[in-house]
Design the sequence.
């Protein structure tokens, strides 16, 4: 944040002392039935997996009512996750609204919300082995929805050059391969991510986005329940554990494992995918 010299009003301190209010109290947000999901998970069997190579991305699909797990394997590694409605790519993860509802970092019991006009839960986090981390003394925490994704445009702006393995490019290539189209057609579908395993925050003095070494270790995982049919894409960030830099080939990088698990049909009882948002879209017209 840039400080512009201004004249303080006489009541400046009183204004600063006004207590904040939560923008979106979540008491009325439909709550996931975690007990039901976890009971169903115990009946699930593995139906597929994909190993995401370092500095690259891969796609995967998850039917509504199934689970997917993202695991650290071999070494500490951060992942950038995109989600789409498998039948309609215009419905996709809305990082900004998810942040407004749940805060800067996600953990078990919180959800990845979709874009307007559907705006419904796409996936619910059911397990987070890094839930113990909390918020550290720097204001850092894990699994953020504040970063966008590392990308070659910002890299070019700040450092020059042409680097092709930023998460944005990895996700673009993976989606293009899945759809059977070129990168120019796939790129507009790529969107702001959930930064899986990434440890980030804002500096208290300047308000700048920071990253630090992820606490993730092999065996750690984040697991999700798919609320709708999902197409996912996961990039193993060229920043590795994001302890120093990204957008280059210098950091140590490791693969990430995505596994899909489907529960027994009866295990979810009367559960059905959430309906699209109830707003009538007339906008007062
Ligand atoms: Zn990245």
Sequence:
């Amino acid at each position: 944040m840039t400080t512009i010299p201004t004249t303080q009003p006489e009541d400046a301190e009183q204004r600063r002392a006004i207590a904040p209010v939560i923008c979106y109290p979540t008491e009325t947000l439909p709550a996931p039935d975690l007990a039901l999901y976890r009971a169903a998970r115990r009946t699930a069997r593995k139906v597929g997996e994909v190993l995401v190579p370092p500095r690259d991305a891969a796609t995967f699909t998850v039917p509504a009512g199934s689970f997917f797990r993202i695991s650290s394997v071999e070494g500490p590694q951060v992942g950038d996750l995109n989600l789409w409605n498998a039948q309609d790519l215009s419905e996709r993860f809305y990082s900004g609204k998810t942040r407004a509802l749940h805060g800067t970092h996600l953990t078990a019991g919180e959800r990845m919300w979709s874009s307007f006009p559907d705006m419904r839960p796409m996936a619910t986090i059911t397990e987070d082995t890094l839930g113990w981390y909390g918020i550290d003394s720097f204001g850092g925490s894990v699994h953020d929805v504040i970063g966008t994704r590392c990308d070659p445009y910002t890299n070019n702006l700040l450092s020059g050059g042409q680097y092709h393995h930023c998460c944005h490019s990895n996700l673009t290539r993976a989606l293009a391969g899945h759809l059977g189209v070129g990168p120019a057609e796939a790129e507009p579908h790529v969107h702001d991510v959930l930064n899986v395993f990434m440890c980030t925050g804002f500096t208290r003095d300047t308000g700048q986005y920071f990253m630090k070494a992820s606490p993730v270790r092999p065996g750690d995982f984040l697991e999700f329940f798919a609320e709708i049919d999902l197409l996912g894409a996961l990039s193993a960030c060229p920043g590795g554990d994001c302890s120093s830099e990204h957008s280059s080939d210098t950091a140590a990088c490791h693969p990430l494992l995505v596994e899909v698990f489907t529960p027994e049909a009866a295990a979810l009882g009367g559960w059905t995918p959430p309906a699209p948002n109830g707003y009538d879209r007339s906008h007062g017209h």
